[in-house]
C-alpha cells in the first residue's frame, strides 16, 4: 500500500473520530479515539438488536407455518 493511500485511510478514520493524531516534530502519532469507538459500539448494538428481533419474528413465523402444515395434514 502506498504512503498516500495510507494517509487517506488515516484521514478518513480521523474524520470519523475513530483515530486521534498528535504531532511530535516530524512524527504523527495515532491512537484510538474513545468517542468514535463508543459511537461504533452503540451502532453495532442497535444493529444486533434489530436483527435479533427480525430473526425472532422470522422464527415465530416459520414455526406458525410448520404448525399449520402439520394441522392440515391431519
Automatic annotation (TrEMBL):
Stretches assigned to the HTH arsR-type domain: 1-52
Domain of life: Bacteria
Family annotation (InterPro entries): ArsR-like_HTH (IPR011991), HTH_ArsR_DNA-bd_dom (IPR001845), WH-like_DNA-bd_sf (IPR036388), WH_DNA-bd_sf (IPR036390)
CDD domains given in the database record: HTH_ARSR (cd00090)
Protein name: HTH arsR-type domain-containing protein
Amino acid at each position: 500500500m502506498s504512503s498516500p493511500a495510507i494517509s487517506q485511510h488515516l484521514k478518513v478514520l480521523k474524520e470519523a473520530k475513530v483515530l486521534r493524531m498528535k504531532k511530535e516534530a516530524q512524527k504523527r502519532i495515532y491512537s484510538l479515539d474513545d468517542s468514535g469507538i463508543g459511537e461504533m459500539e452503540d451502532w453495532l448494538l442497535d444493529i444486533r438488536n434489530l436483527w435479533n428481533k427480525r430473526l425472532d419474528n422470522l422464527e415465530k413465523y416459520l414455526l406458525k407455518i410448520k404448525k399449520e402444515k402439520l394441522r392440515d395434514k391431519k
